[in-house]
Structures are given as C-alpha cells and as structure tokens.
Amino acid sequence: KQWYQRRVAITAGDLSKRRVVQEDIKRCEEKYSKAKTVNQILRHVGELLDYEDDKMLEELYKKTAWCFDKKYPTSGKSHEMFKEAAQKPEVLDELDIDDHTKEVLLKNIKRRLTPQAVKVRADVEVLCYAYEGIDAVKAALRAGLKLATEEVPLKINLIAPPIYVISVTLFNEEKGVEAVRASMEAIKNSIEASKGTFNVKLDPKVVTEREDQKLQEELEQRERDMMEKDGDEDSEDEESEDDEEEESDENEV
Questions:
Q1: Is 157 helix (H, G, I), strand (E, B) or coil?
Q2: In this structure, are residues 49 and 98 in contact, taking their beta carbons and an 8 Å threshold?
Q3: How many CB atoms lie within 10 A of CB 244?
Q4: Per-residue b/e over 61-80, b at no fewer than 16 CB within 10 Å?
Q5: Taking a C-beta distance cutoff of 8 angstroms, is the pair 154, 179 a contact?
Q6: Helix-then-strand count for the chain, H and E
Q7: Gap between the Cα atoms of 150 and 168, Å rounded
Q8: Given this model, what pLDDT does residue 109 score?
Q9: Among the four residues 65, 166, 230, 248, which has the most C-beta atoms within 10 Å?
C-alpha cells in the first residue's frame, strides 16, 4: 500500500507544501496574490464598462496587464506598474486604451492599490547595572533615536522598566522593519559598550490596529500611574513639612 501511494505521488506529482521550500511557498503565494488582484481590477473595470462578452475583457487584458508583462519580463510586472500608477497616473499613458477606459481603470487601481501605512514594532530590554547605570540606558536610547528622520519617524517609548518599544509608521513594510532593526542595533552597541545588557523581547513585526490600540492603552496607563505616583510623593512631602512645622512650634513653646 505504501509503495502504491508513493508510486502515485511520483506519477501524478506531489503538490504538498511539505515538500516545497518555505521561500518558494511564500514567493508563489505572493505571485498568485498579485495576479489575483490584477484580475479583480480588470474584471471590475469590464463590468463598469458593460462588456458584453469575454472577448472584450480579453482585449482589455491584452492592452493593459499583458502589455506590461510582455514589455517588462519580470514576474508580476503588471501588478507593479498598476501600483506605480496609483501614485503616477502617467504610467498608463503608454497603454493603447481610450481616455474613458483609462479613467475607469485608474480609479479602480487607486481604490485597490493605494499603499496603506503600516506600523512596525519591536520590544527590547535595555538595562545597565554598571557604574553608568541609567545614564548608559538613556545614551543607548538616544543612539537609537538618532536614526530617526522626517521620512523615517522612529519612536521609542517606555512600557515598564526595563522594557522599551521601538516603532515606526511607513508605507513600506520592509523599510519599516529595516529601520527598527537598525535602531535596535544602535541601542545594543551603545549599551553593551557601557557593560549593559540588551535583549530582544519582540522581533520587529507589523502590528494590527488592535495591537496598536492595546499598546497606546498601556502607555496611557503608565502615564496615569506616573502622575499618581508623583501626586503621592507630593502629598508625602507636604505631610512631612507639616510635621516639621508642628515639631518646631512645640519646641518654641
């Protein structure tokens, strides 16, 4: 039975993901996803233009997606060109389509492919028990923030000592991950140079809106806790001053 199953697998071709390299799986899934998006855009354009048969839709494919794929052999080039057109409409000028078709196509491309900003986050532990102590931690965090620019607005927030969150919001996920990793490396080098410790608690990842909301709630709660703590310390100081005044009055008597 096992021999028969193996024979069938060899003859028919085993398409199981278990026998495919993980990188190949990701690459093929991405290619399929892009092709599916292009197909959905063009089909919707065909519906809006009241195409009566598949031949008219096929003609649209030839003049748009297939035109880009033929001109630029790179895999998934039509998706890339459509995505670029969302920011630079003139990209579609080289296509042999009338102005109305171009207008409807561009409108649907923008609706489907306009880039959305993503937030990348990483959690790190930074501490130092050596002579420099908290000054070394502050210096390390400043080293991480030095990489922030107007285009890459890195932020570092305290969750609870000694855990800090590094985050950045960009349209490009890969650039966001790279920026956060670079900041982590700068912090690591700085704190370890001061004989401190650096540990990664959460690798850089794109956070969902729900996860981001949870982080904001944690930061707001910490701010409230700090304000309450400061208020308690002020009250203790006032009580201490009152006690000292009472003792002074008693001594005068």
A1: strand
A2: no
A3: 10
A4: beebbebbbeeeeeebbbbb
A5: yes
A6: 9, 4
A7: 11
A8: 93
A9: 166
76: DSSP letter: T
Query: What pLDDT does 8 receive?
Result: 43
Q: Is 115 helix (H, G, I), strand (E, B) or coil?
A: coil
Amino acid at 64: T
61-106 pLDDT, tens digit per residue, is 999 999 998 888 776 789 899 989 988 999 999 999 999 999 999 9
Share of the chain residues as helix, strand and coil, in percent rounded to the nearest 5: 65, 15, 20
pLDDT tens digits for 152-188? 999 999 988 899 999 999 988 899 999 999 999 999 9
Q: Do the beta carbons of residue 126 and residue 164 sit within 8 Å?
A: yes
Pick the closest to residue 199 from 175, 164, 168, 167 (CA basis): 164
Mean of all residue pLDDT scores within the chain? 83
How far apart CA 117 and CA 124 sit, in angstroms, is 23
| Positive or negative: CA dihedral 70, 73, 76, 78 | negative
Residues 6+ apart with CB under 8 A from 195: 128, 130, 136
**The pTM is what?**
0.56
The total number of residues written for the chain in this structure: 253
- Decide which of 203 and 253 is more confident: 203
Q: Helix (H, G, I), strand (E, B), or coil: what is residue 14?
A: coil
**Structure letter (DSSP) for residue 131:** T
What are the beta bridge partners of residue 158?
164
Integer Cα distance of 14 and 6 in angstroms: 9
End-to-end CA distance of the chain: 106
**Tokens at residue 253, please?**
């008597």
